[in-house]
Amino acid sequence: MVSTMVEVDKEKCIGCGSCVALCPDVFELGSDGKAQVKEGADTSKECVKEAAEACPVEAIKV
Ligand code: SF4
Q: What is the value of pTM for the model shown?
């Protein structure tokens, strides 16, 4: 299984939800209102890159 390392910097994340809207299979909003990578998500999905590019505070590291 090929899975790229994807991380959300919770310090930077403002919880806007863009990444979740663009890539709901990989990102979710946690109970802290910040985005996080879903447990066991397939991070090789193309939408991960789109979400990283769309993040207004560049909190997604691919
Ligand atoms: S797009 Fe960026 S700021 Fe918005 S919820 Fe996702 S990680 Fe957080």
A: 0.92
| Binding site membership of 26 for ligand 1 (Cβ less than 6 Å) | no
Ligand 1 pocket residue status of 24, Cβ below 6 Å: no
pLDDT tens-digit map of 30-46: 999 999 999 999 999 99
**Measured CA angle at 5 (ends 43, 46), to 5 deg:** 35
Pairing of strands 7-8, 60-61: antiparallel
How much distance in Å is there from the Cα of 12 to the middle of ligand 1? 8
Chain centroid offset of residue 11 CA: 14
Domains and CATH numbers, the chain: 7-61 (3.30.70.20)
